[in-house]
């Protein structure tokens, strides 16, 4: 079996899970078997020790990565957002196996439980601003492991350009600044954000949405050719 693709490796975009899912589905297809997503998830965890929930599609989920189990379906879709993608640390890959294990305390568990409640509300009410608050808070908690030196700069750019928050991959260097597509002056904010990232030495990658959108028509000034077409978060 030969796998091909243009998804960047080591940035936290699920490249290894994508390879595992493709392999499992190809082998199953060769035997004329259509495996349910739950089975693929369990096999992926057995293969790698952990897995992203890519086999379950694009619904927002609470997913136990080391068990391959969906704990909760948060809704049918995330709130609408426009994301200015970027790569931290010069786009260097992250060796996830070398990351230190983070031992959570009771305060951490309380904080994450609170964020989950906020996220449920954001999805239910399509509240993009609340989604941004949850994403930023989650990224800030994760900095105890990832230690991105650009994190303060990223949040400052978000605050200064009218964004609702930032997102950073759980175990990589891919990140994004989130905007509400319904906000006034959206296009101006996106331009300012891209320029601010470039001035800070943080490479913008591509601008995309969490909803179906002909982005080249809505944002014709955006350069979408800086990352492979499959590189989507």
Unreliably modeled segments: 220-233
Q: Number of folding domains?
A: 2
Order of helices and strands: HHEEEHHHEEHEH
Percentage of residues in strands: 5-15%
Mean pLDDT reading? 86
Query: Superfamily at the CATH H level of the largest domain?
Result: GHMP kinase, C-terminal domain
Instruction: Just give the CATH class of the largest domain.
Output: Alpha Beta
**Strand element count:** 6
Spatial extent as radius of gyration: 18 Å
What count of helical segments does DSSP give? Answer: 7
CATH architecture call of the largest domain = 2-Layer Sandwich
CATH fold topology of the largest domain: Alpha-Beta Plaits
Shape category: globular
Strands of the largest sheet, in order across it? Answer: 4-5-3-6
Structural class: alpha+beta
Most strands sheet = 4 strands, antiparallel
State the end-to-end distance. Answer: 26 Å
**Portion of residues in helices?**
40-55%
